[in-house]
């Protein structure tokens, strides 16, 4: 059966929400060299502009998930995106770096509503066999938004000012917010039964964390997205210094590789309908692992190959892991998908910042070494889960 009009509108609305979320989440990545130079701070300190937002989301997703049980998934998404739009417009106007970081954190808290419930909404209202493909469209929105935010903020920060770059992305977020509110169908949640209390929601959280079936998914996100964010946070610094000396405005063009990631996310969604999703995750991890050697090259063309492999692999593994957090939950899907969001965002914040510590001390090799270590650990988890799936053990949910 082909998707009906309401289903197409839902998927389109989630694409727009993903666009708005990631354009305003990672636009700061592209301004880090300009921010560090303008404020005379280290690369690790500048990266707090990214980590503050991801930390804000991580701190808020469980609260948003609980609120969605009380007032509804779609209501939470509307509130979240409106609040994000307002805070993102205010953040670039902060007079000091400390206030900028605080406002970026508030933006992250607002963004948490979308991140907490988007995948859960798909799992709840769509037929199971359509969820991976629809989730891949949502992730594609994330990807396109991430690229657009970076491509606008990066060059504008060099040509004009980093504040103007952030403001332009925030203005684009206003347009995305209006589109989302217009597209999102009403009455989607009529069939959804909700937990009765906060205590029940906490019970779901404990249940998911106690089962390796779901906990392994959260650890996977923590590692694979930490690996990815560490590389992209400091790619701009690496490209603008020796041996490449690429102008900062042009360095932002490397983020176009994200479109290859968007394609790989769609392919992964289709592939998951034919093979077990954990095998797709394992293939993605393998692609990230082999990206390490070309990323260490002094040739910009070979470096691009490495970044492409990293991006392809991440956007195979991440959407499937996100989808699995809902599909394998059994009960409390909103809490499970929120825990996955918390995990990968925490990984992005922690490893994204720590990558700067290594970069300032050991250079680009330190960042690549961190990325490779994280993805090897993630690959071990994916391999064990793929093996369990093949042996028919995945449904048993062994205790962590």
Describe the structure.
Mean pLDDT is 85; it is low at 394-400. The chain is 81% helix and 0% strand. With 400 residues, the protein is mainly alpha-helical. The two termini are 39 Å apart. It has 17 helices and no strands. Helix 1 packs parallel to helix 7 (131-159).
How would you summarize what this structure contains?
With 400 residues, the chain is mainly alpha-helical. The chain has helices at 5-25, 27-39, 43-46, 48-71, 73-90, 97-125, 131-159, 162-183, 198-210, 212-240, 248-251, 257-271, 277-290, 292-295, 300-327, 333-362, 364-390.
Describe the secondary structure blueprint for this structure.
Blueprint: H1 5-25, H2 27-39, H3 43-46, H4 48-71, H5 73-90, H6 97-125, H7 131-159, H8 162-183, H9 198-210, H10 212-240, H11 248-251, H12 257-271, H13 277-290, H14 292-295, H15 300-327, H16 333-362, H17 364-390
Helix pairs in contact: 1-5, 1-6, 1-7, 1-8, 2-7, 2-8, 2-10, 4-5, 4-6, 4-16, 5-6, 5-8, 6-7, 6-16, 7-8, 7-12, 7-15, 10-15, 10-16, 10-17, 12-15, 13-15, 13-17, 15-16, 16-17
Shape assignment: globular
Total helices: the number is 17
Low-confidence segments, ≥5 residues, pLDDT <50?
Answer: 394-400
Helix percentage range: over 70%
Characteristic terms for this protein:
400 residues; 17 helices; 0% strand; single chain; mainly alpha
């Amino acid at each position: 059966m082909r998707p009906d009009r309401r289903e197409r509108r839902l998927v389109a609305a989630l694409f727009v929400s993903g666009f708005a979320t990631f354009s305003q989440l990672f636009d700061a990545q592209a301004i880090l060299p300009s921010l560090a130079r303008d404020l005379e701070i280290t690369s690790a300190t500048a990266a707090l502009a990214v980590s503050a937002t991801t930390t804000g989301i991580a701190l808020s997703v469980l609260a948003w998930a609980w609120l969605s049980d009380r007032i509804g998934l779609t209501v939470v998404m509307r509130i979240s995106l409106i609040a994000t739009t307002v805070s993102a417009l205010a953040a670039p106007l902060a007079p000091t770096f400390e206030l900028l970081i605080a406002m970026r954190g508030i933006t992250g808290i607002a963004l948490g509503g979308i991140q907490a419930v988007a995948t859960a909404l798909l799992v709840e209202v769509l037929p199971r066999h359509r969820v991976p493909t629809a989730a891949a469209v949502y992730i594609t929105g994330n990807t396109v938004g991430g690229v657009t935010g970076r491509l606008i903020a990066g060059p504008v920060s060099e040509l004009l000012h980093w504040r103007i770059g952030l403001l332009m992305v925030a203005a684009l977020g206003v347009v995305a917010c209006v589109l989302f509110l217009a597209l999102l169908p009403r009455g989607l949640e009529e069939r959804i039964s909700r937990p009765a209390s906060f205590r029940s929601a906490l019970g779901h959280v404990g249940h998911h964390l106690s089962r390796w079936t779901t906990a392994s998914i959260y650890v996977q996100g923590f590692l694979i997205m930490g690996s990815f964010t560490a590389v992209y946070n400091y790619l701009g610094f690496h490209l603008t210094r020796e041996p490449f000396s690429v102008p900062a405005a042009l360095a932002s063009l490397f983020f176009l590789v994200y479109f290859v990631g968007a394609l790989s996310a769609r392919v992964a969604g289709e592939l998951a309908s034919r093979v077990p999703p954990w095998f797709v995750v394992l293939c993605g991890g393998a692609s990230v692992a082999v990206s390490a050697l070309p990323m260490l090259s002094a040739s910009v063309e070979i470096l691009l190959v490495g970044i492409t492999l990293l991006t392809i692999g991440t956007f195979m593994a991440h959407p499937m892991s996100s989808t699995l957090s809902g599909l394998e939950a059994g009960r409390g899907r909103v809490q499970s998908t929120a825990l996955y969001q918390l995990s990968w965002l925490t990984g992005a914040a922690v490893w994204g910042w720590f990558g700067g510590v290594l970069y300032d001390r050991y250079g680009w090799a330190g960042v690549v070494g961190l990325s490779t270590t994280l993805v090897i650990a993630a690959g071990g988890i994916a391999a064990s889960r793929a093996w369990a799936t093949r042996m028919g053990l995945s449904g048993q949910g062994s205790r962590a």
